[in-house]
Design goal:
The chain is α+β, with helices and mostly antiparallel strands. The protein has two domains: 160 residues, no CATH class; 251 residues, no CATH class. It contains twelve helices and 13 strands. The strands form five sheets. Strands 1-2-3-4-7 form a five-stranded antiparallel β-sheet. A two-stranded antiparallel sheet has the order 5-6. Strand 1 and strand 2 form a beta hairpin. It is globular.
Amino acid sequence: MTRNHRRKKETRAFAAATGKTYLDAANSLNKLKAAEVPLATTLHDSLVAEFRAAGWPVIADQFPMGGRLWIYAGPATVNIGREVSAAVQRNLTGDEHPDDPNAFDLGSPLEIIVTAPRMYNYSDELQRVVGFEPREVSTNQPFTEIVTEINSLISEARHRDQSDIPERATCDICGDRYPSDGLFEARDMLDSRLEVCPCCIFDADIDLDPALLAYDLDFAATESVAAPAGWAAAQVLLGCLGGADLLGWLKQQWKERSPGWRVPEEWWADSLQTWIWLPPAAQRPIALADLGCGASLNAIIAAVGRSFPELQSTCRVSFMESVRDELVSDSYGDFDGDSGPAEYREMYRMAGVAFERLWPAAVAFTVAMATQVAERPRDHSPRARLQRPLFQAEHWDRSMSSGLNVCDVESVLEHCIPKVREALYPDRQPRRP
C-alpha cells in the first residue's frame, strides 16, 4: 500500500492544483518527466526539504497563488514560478499551476523570488523598504547554495536595518535604549502607559495582556527583520504558558476585540517553530555553529542536545531536588517526592510539569538574549545580561489559564537559564552587578 507513496502524493497535489483528474495528472507528470522538463513542484519540494535540513521553520503551500508556488521559511517568503511575458501574465487568473502546460510554456525557465520580511513594510524613518524588496535567486546552483544565498540576504538586511535605525527610545523599566519600534506598549498596575523591552515585558509591575502581546509579536516578526532578538524569547514563553490551546484562544480574543485584526500566525500552534535570531558567526557558540542567521527553536534545542546530551536531564534533576528541599523545609518531616502529604506530592508533580513545559523557554531566552547583546554591543541592564530574573509577573494568568503555578514558572527559568548559558557560553559568564 505504501509503494510509490511519494509519487502518488505528488500526483494528488498536482491534480488538486490543476483541476485535473488523478489519471490525467499522472499522465501529464509522466510526459513532463519523460521530456526532462524542470518542474516547479520538484524545485519547491526540494527547497522545502533543504530549508528544514538547515533548521528553518517552514510552511509549504502546495496550492498555487499568482501562478506560483510559495514557501514561508523563517522571516522570508520564497515563491517559485516561470518566467513569462507581461502579456501572458495579464491573462492569468492567478490559480494556475506553474507546471500546467495549458497555462505556461514549460520550456520557459523557472525562477525563485525572495522577500523578507514576510509583509511589505515601507519605513518613513529609513525612507526605504524594510528588509529587501523582491530579489531573484539563481536556480542554476545546488539547493544547499540557494538556501545559503537566502540566508546571506536576510543576514545582510538585518545588519543593515539595525545599523540604520537610530535608538531613540528608552525602556521605561530598565532604561536600555532601543529603536522606537523595538519597544511594545504595556500598562502598569495603575493603568499608566509604558514602553517596555523584551527583558521587562514579564515584570511584576506590568499588567500583562497576553492577547495584545501576541498581536504585537506577530507584527514584529512579520514586518521587520531588525526587531530585537529578545522578542522571540518572549514569544516562546507566551507559547509555553498558553499551551496547545493558545492558537484557538488567540483567534477568539482577536476576533472579539476587533474584526479587523489579523489572524494569528501559525507558530502559536507550536512554540518550537518560533524563529530565533542567532549572533553573528564569530560570536556564535560552537553548538550552534552549523546553523545560519537564525533557526527554529526546535533546531536550536536539537543542536544544544547534540553538544550537551545530559544538559536537560541534569537541569531537571537539580531543579526537582531544589523543589523537594523546599517542600521538606515546609513540611513536618521527610519528603522524597513519592511519600508525604498528598498536597505536597501534587506540588512536586506540578513542578515537574512546569519544567517540561518551560525548558524550551529557558533555551530560547538564553540564546535570544545572547544574540541581542551581541548585536547591540553597548551597556545593557542586568536583565539583558541575564543577571536578574526575566519573569516576575503575577498577572498574566488572569485571562489565559496556563495550569501552571506562577512560582514554578519563575523557579524553572531562574534555575535553568544560568545553566544553559554556562554550557553554551563558558567563557562569557555575566559579570556581577
